[in-house]
Amino acid sequence: MIQLDETDKLILNTIQLDFPLELHPFEKLAEQLNIPEIEVLQRLERLTEEGALRRIGPIINTKETGGTSTLVAVKASLERIDEVADCINSYPEVSHNYLRPAEYNIWFTVSAANEERLEQILEEIKFRTGCSLISLPTRRLFKIGVKFNIR
Amino acid sequence: MDEIDKQIIKLTQDGISLVHAPFAEIAAKLGLSEEDVINRLIIMYKEGVIRRFGASIGHRAIGITANAMCTWNVPDDRVEEVGAIMSGFPEVTHCYERPRYPDWPYNLFTMVHSYTKEDCINVAKQVSKATNITDYRLLFSEREFKKTGVRL
Question: Are B95 and A61 an interchain contact pair (Cβ–Cβ within 8 Å)?
Protein backbone atom coordinates (compact mmCIF):
# COMPACT_ATOMS: atom_id res chain seq x y z
CA MET A 1 0.00 0.00 0.00
CA ILE A 2 1.20 3.50 -0.90
CA GLN A 3 1.95 6.01 1.80
CA LEU A 4 0.43 9.40 1.07
CA ASP A 5 1.50 12.59 2.80
CA GLU A 6 -0.92 15.37 3.71
CA THR A 7 -0.21 17.28 0.46
CA ASP A 8 -0.94 14.18 -1.65
CA LYS A 9 -4.23 13.72 0.20
CA LEU A 10 -5.16 17.39 -0.21
CA ILE A 11 -4.53 17.23 -3.97
CA LEU A 12 -6.40 13.94 -4.47
CA ASN A 13 -9.37 14.98 -2.36
CA THR A 14 -9.61 18.25 -4.32
CA ILE A 15 -9.29 17.01 -7.91
CA GLN A 16 -11.88 14.29 -7.58
CA LEU A 17 -14.59 16.95 -7.62
CA ASP A 18 -13.17 20.35 -8.45
CA PHE A 19 -10.89 19.89 -11.41
CA PRO A 20 -10.77 23.26 -13.20
CA LEU A 21 -11.76 23.10 -16.88
CA GLU A 22 -9.40 25.84 -18.05
CA LEU A 23 -6.44 26.39 -20.36
CA HIS A 24 -3.97 25.77 -17.55
CA PRO A 25 -5.85 23.68 -14.99
CA PHE A 26 -2.83 22.61 -12.96
CA GLU A 27 -1.68 26.21 -12.59
CA LYS A 28 -5.13 27.12 -11.29
CA LEU A 29 -5.09 24.15 -8.93
CA ALA A 30 -1.60 25.14 -7.73
CA GLU A 31 -2.88 28.62 -6.88
CA GLN A 32 -5.90 27.21 -5.04
CA LEU A 33 -3.78 24.86 -2.98
CA ASN A 34 -0.83 27.21 -2.59
CA ILE A 35 1.66 24.69 -4.01
CA PRO A 36 3.95 25.41 -7.01
CA GLU A 37 2.53 24.05 -10.30
CA ILE A 38 5.66 22.01 -11.00
CA GLU A 39 5.26 20.27 -7.64
CA VAL A 40 1.58 19.53 -8.33
CA LEU A 41 2.55 17.95 -11.68
CA GLN A 42 5.42 15.95 -10.17
CA ARG A 43 3.20 14.64 -7.39
CA LEU A 44 0.47 13.68 -9.89
CA GLU A 45 3.05 11.83 -12.03
CA ARG A 46 4.26 9.91 -8.99
CA LEU A 47 0.71 9.18 -7.78
CA THR A 48 -0.10 7.84 -11.25
CA GLU A 49 2.97 5.59 -11.31
CA GLU A 50 2.07 4.27 -7.86
CA GLY A 51 -1.54 3.61 -8.84
CA ALA A 52 -3.19 6.12 -6.49
CA LEU A 53 -4.37 8.17 -9.47
CA ARG A 54 -5.94 6.27 -12.36
CA ARG A 55 -6.64 9.22 -14.63
CA ILE A 56 -8.06 12.72 -14.83
CA GLY A 57 -10.89 12.80 -17.33
CA PRO A 58 -14.63 12.72 -17.95
CA ILE A 59 -16.97 10.28 -16.24
CA ILE A 60 -19.65 9.67 -18.81
CA ASN A 61 -23.38 9.43 -18.18
CA THR A 62 -24.44 6.51 -20.41
CA LYS A 63 -28.11 7.52 -20.25
CA GLU A 64 -27.27 10.85 -21.87
CA THR A 65 -25.11 9.30 -24.57
CA GLY A 66 -28.04 7.15 -25.69
CA GLY A 67 -26.74 3.96 -24.11
CA THR A 68 -28.36 1.72 -21.55
CA SER A 69 -26.94 -0.23 -18.63
CA THR A 70 -27.84 -2.63 -15.88
CA LEU A 71 -26.50 -4.57 -12.91
CA VAL A 72 -26.78 -8.34 -13.30
CA ALA A 73 -26.67 -11.00 -10.59
CA VAL A 74 -25.78 -14.57 -11.62
CA LYS A 75 -26.11 -17.89 -9.81
CA ALA A 76 -22.98 -19.90 -10.61
CA SER A 77 -21.81 -23.09 -8.92
CA LEU A 78 -18.48 -22.64 -7.14
CA GLU A 79 -16.54 -25.04 -9.35
CA ARG A 80 -17.61 -23.13 -12.48
CA ILE A 81 -16.91 -19.62 -11.18
CA ASP A 82 -13.86 -18.97 -13.36
CA GLU A 83 -15.44 -20.28 -16.53
CA VAL A 84 -18.60 -18.23 -16.02
CA ALA A 85 -16.62 -15.09 -15.08
CA ASP A 86 -14.47 -15.48 -18.22
CA CYS A 87 -17.55 -15.79 -20.41
CA ILE A 88 -19.00 -12.59 -18.89
CA ASN A 89 -15.68 -10.73 -19.20
CA SER A 90 -15.44 -11.58 -22.88
CA TYR A 91 -18.01 -8.86 -23.62
CA PRO A 92 -16.35 -5.44 -23.94
CA GLU A 93 -19.65 -3.91 -22.78
CA VAL A 94 -19.08 -5.44 -19.31
CA SER A 95 -17.34 -2.80 -17.17
CA HIS A 96 -17.28 -4.35 -13.67
CA ASN A 97 -17.46 -7.97 -12.56
CA TYR A 98 -17.11 -9.29 -9.02
CA LEU A 99 -17.43 -12.45 -6.97
CA ARG A 100 -19.73 -11.64 -4.06
CA PRO A 101 -20.78 -14.77 -2.22
CA ALA A 102 -24.57 -14.93 -1.66
CA GLU A 103 -27.47 -16.78 -3.36
CA TYR A 104 -26.44 -14.84 -6.44
CA ASN A 105 -22.66 -14.79 -6.45
CA ILE A 106 -21.38 -13.14 -9.63
CA TRP A 107 -22.35 -9.49 -9.95
CA PHE A 108 -21.52 -7.52 -13.05
CA THR A 109 -22.44 -4.24 -14.73
CA VAL A 110 -22.95 -3.94 -18.46
CA SER A 111 -23.48 -0.87 -20.67
CA ALA A 112 -24.66 -1.29 -24.24
CA ALA A 113 -25.48 1.02 -27.13
CA ASN A 114 -29.17 0.13 -26.93
CA GLU A 115 -31.76 -2.14 -25.26
CA GLU A 116 -31.62 -4.74 -28.04
CA ARG A 117 -27.87 -5.23 -27.64
CA LEU A 118 -28.20 -5.37 -23.85
CA GLU A 119 -30.91 -8.02 -24.12
CA GLN A 120 -28.80 -9.98 -26.61
CA ILE A 121 -25.77 -9.99 -24.28
CA LEU A 122 -27.84 -11.26 -21.33
CA GLU A 123 -29.51 -13.96 -23.44
CA GLU A 124 -26.13 -15.10 -24.76
CA ILE A 125 -24.63 -15.26 -21.28
CA LYS A 126 -27.62 -17.27 -20.05
CA PHE A 127 -27.31 -19.65 -22.99
CA ARG A 128 -23.52 -20.02 -22.89
CA THR A 129 -23.25 -20.52 -19.10
CA GLY A 130 -26.58 -22.19 -18.38
CA CYS A 131 -26.77 -20.04 -15.23
CA SER A 132 -29.87 -18.19 -14.10
CA LEU A 133 -29.54 -14.46 -13.73
CA ILE A 134 -31.57 -11.40 -12.80
CA SER A 135 -31.23 -7.95 -14.34
CA LEU A 136 -31.43 -5.01 -11.94
CA PRO A 137 -31.51 -1.76 -13.93
CA THR A 138 -31.47 1.53 -12.03
CA ARG A 139 -34.96 2.83 -11.27
CA ARG A 140 -33.86 5.92 -9.36
CA LEU A 141 -30.37 7.26 -8.87
CA PHE A 142 -29.59 8.83 -5.51
CA LYS A 143 -25.79 9.01 -5.57
CA ILE A 144 -23.01 7.92 -7.85
CA GLY A 145 -19.27 7.50 -7.13
CA VAL A 146 -18.84 11.08 -6.08
CA LYS A 147 -15.59 10.85 -4.22
CA PHE A 148 -13.53 8.86 -1.78
CA ASN A 149 -12.78 10.50 1.51
CA ILE A 150 -9.01 9.92 1.69
CA ARG A 151 -7.85 10.13 5.28
CA MET B 1 -23.71 15.57 -28.68
CA ASP B 2 -22.12 15.69 -32.13
CA GLU B 3 -19.21 13.85 -33.73
CA ILE B 4 -16.65 16.39 -32.43
CA ASP B 5 -17.98 15.99 -28.87
CA LYS B 6 -17.57 12.22 -29.21
CA GLN B 7 -14.00 12.64 -30.41
CA ILE B 8 -13.24 14.91 -27.44
CA ILE B 9 -14.60 12.26 -25.06
CA LYS B 10 -12.55 9.56 -26.78
CA LEU B 11 -9.37 11.62 -26.53
CA THR B 12 -9.87 12.46 -22.83
CA GLN B 13 -11.48 9.33 -21.36
CA ASP B 14 -8.15 7.62 -20.69
CA GLY B 15 -6.91 10.74 -18.92
CA ILE B 16 -5.51 14.08 -19.97
CA SER B 17 -1.74 14.62 -19.93
CA LEU B 18 -0.21 15.99 -16.77
CA VAL B 19 1.27 19.11 -18.38
CA HIS B 20 0.85 22.90 -18.28
CA ALA B 21 -1.59 22.95 -21.24
CA PRO B 22 -3.24 19.52 -21.33
CA PHE B 23 -5.96 20.45 -23.83
CA ALA B 24 -3.49 21.70 -26.46
CA GLU B 25 -2.68 18.29 -27.96
CA ILE B 26 -6.36 17.33 -28.08
CA ALA B 27 -7.21 20.61 -29.80
CA ALA B 28 -4.38 20.10 -32.31
CA LYS B 29 -5.56 16.58 -33.15
CA LEU B 30 -9.09 17.82 -33.86
CA GLY B 31 -8.11 21.07 -35.55
CA LEU B 32 -9.89 23.12 -32.88
CA SER B 33 -8.71 25.80 -30.49
CA GLU B 34 -8.07 24.88 -26.86
CA GLU B 35 -10.94 27.16 -25.88
CA ASP B 36 -13.30 25.21 -28.17
CA VAL B 37 -12.31 21.93 -26.53
CA ILE B 38 -12.77 23.34 -23.02
CA ASN B 39 -16.09 25.01 -23.89
CA ARG B 40 -17.44 21.81 -25.36
CA LEU B 41 -16.41 19.89 -22.23
CA ILE B 42 -18.16 22.49 -20.05
CA ILE B 43 -21.33 22.28 -22.16
CA MET B 44 -21.32 18.46 -22.00
CA TYR B 45 -20.93 18.73 -18.23
CA LYS B 46 -23.80 21.23 -17.93
CA GLU B 47 -26.01 19.05 -20.13
CA GLY B 48 -25.23 15.96 -18.09
CA VAL B 49 -23.41 13.98 -20.81
CA ILE B 50 -20.38 14.18 -18.52
CA ARG B 51 -21.31 13.39 -14.94
CA ARG B 52 -18.06 14.69 -13.54
CA PHE B 53 -14.70 15.75 -14.90
CA GLY B 54 -11.96 14.92 -12.46
CA ALA B 55 -9.65 12.35 -10.97
CA SER B 56 -10.47 8.67 -10.73
CA ILE B 57 -8.75 7.29 -7.69
CA GLY B 58 -7.04 3.91 -7.50
CA HIS B 59 -8.71 3.38 -4.16
CA ARG B 60 -7.23 -0.08 -3.62
CA ALA B 61 -3.70 1.24 -4.08
CA ILE B 62 -4.15 3.76 -1.30
CA GLY B 63 -5.59 1.27 1.15
CA ILE B 64 -9.33 1.69 0.62
CA THR B 65 -9.46 -2.03 -0.08
CA ALA B 66 -12.74 -3.03 1.48
CA ASN B 67 -15.92 -2.63 -0.49
CA ALA B 68 -19.33 -3.96 0.23
CA MET B 69 -22.49 -3.95 -1.79
CA CYS B 70 -25.17 -3.38 0.77
CA THR B 71 -28.70 -4.19 -0.34
CA TRP B 72 -31.73 -3.01 1.62
CA ASN B 73 -35.36 -4.04 1.70
CA VAL B 74 -37.06 -0.65 1.93
CA PRO B 75 -40.85 -0.16 1.88
CA ASP B 76 -41.76 1.42 -1.46
CA ASP B 77 -43.25 4.51 0.16
CA ARG B 78 -40.01 5.19 2.07
CA VAL B 79 -37.54 4.85 -0.84
CA GLU B 80 -37.17 8.59 -1.53
CA GLU B 81 -36.61 9.48 2.13
CA VAL B 82 -34.27 6.55 2.88
CA GLY B 83 -32.27 7.02 -0.34
CA ALA B 84 -31.57 10.62 0.65
CA ILE B 85 -30.39 9.64 4.15
CA MET B 86 -28.11 6.88 2.83
CA SER B 87 -26.57 9.20 0.23
CA GLY B 88 -25.55 11.56 3.02
CA PHE B 89 -22.97 9.08 4.35
CA PRO B 90 -19.52 9.85 2.82
CA GLU B 91 -18.63 6.14 2.84
CA VAL B 92 -21.71 5.40 0.72
CA THR B 93 -20.30 6.09 -2.75
CA HIS B 94 -23.29 4.85 -4.78
CA CYS B 95 -27.00 4.56 -4.01
CA TYR B 96 -29.65 3.29 -6.42
CA GLU B 97 -33.20 1.97 -6.40
CA ARG B 98 -33.53 -1.25 -8.42
CA PRO B 99 -36.40 -3.69 -9.05
CA ARG B 100 -37.22 -6.46 -6.57
CA TYR B 101 -37.31 -10.15 -7.46
CA PRO B 102 -39.09 -12.96 -5.56
CA ASP B 103 -35.72 -14.42 -4.51
CA TRP B 104 -34.00 -11.02 -4.17
CA PRO B 105 -36.43 -8.62 -2.49
CA TYR B 106 -33.86 -5.90 -1.77
CA ASN B 107 -34.70 -2.72 -3.68
CA LEU B 108 -32.09 -0.19 -2.52
CA PHE B 109 -28.45 -0.81 -3.42
CA THR B 110 -25.57 1.05 -1.86
CA MET B 111 -21.83 0.65 -2.35
CA VAL B 112 -19.73 1.21 0.72
CA HIS B 113 -15.98 1.75 0.33
CA SER B 114 -13.67 1.96 3.28
CA TYR B 115 -10.31 0.93 4.68
CA THR B 116 -11.38 -2.33 6.35
CA LYS B 117 -14.21 -4.86 6.27
CA GLU B 118 -15.04 -3.88 9.85
CA ASP B 119 -15.38 -0.23 8.76
CA CYS B 120 -17.91 -1.30 6.12
CA ILE B 121 -19.89 -3.38 8.62
CA ASN B 122 -19.96 -0.42 11.00
CA VAL B 123 -21.10 1.97 8.28
CA ALA B 124 -23.95 -0.43 7.41
CA LYS B 125 -24.95 -0.56 11.08
CA GLN B 126 -24.98 3.24 11.27
CA VAL B 127 -27.02 3.47 8.07
CA SER B 128 -29.47 0.89 9.45
CA LYS B 129 -29.83 2.86 12.66
CA ALA B 130 -30.28 6.19 10.85
CA THR B 131 -32.98 4.80 8.53
CA ASN B 132 -34.59 2.15 10.73
CA ILE B 133 -34.21 -0.36 7.86
CA THR B 134 -33.19 -3.64 9.45
CA ASP B 135 -33.62 -6.14 6.59
CA TYR B 136 -30.36 -5.85 4.69
CA ARG B 137 -27.57 -7.93 3.17
CA LEU B 138 -23.90 -7.04 3.04
CA LEU B 139 -22.04 -8.59 0.10
CA PHE B 140 -18.27 -8.27 0.11
CA SER B 141 -16.33 -8.61 -3.11
CA GLU B 142 -14.00 -11.57 -2.77
CA ARG B 143 -12.57 -11.31 -6.24
CA GLU B 144 -12.45 -8.62 -8.90
CA PHE B 145 -12.85 -10.30 -12.31
CA LYS B 146 -12.98 -7.03 -14.26
CA LYS B 147 -12.97 -3.30 -13.68
CA THR B 148 -12.85 -0.69 -16.42
CA GLY B 149 -14.51 2.67 -16.79
CA VAL B 150 -17.62 2.91 -18.90
CA ARG B 151 -16.28 3.86 -22.32
CA LEU B 152 -17.60 5.46 -25.46
Answer: no
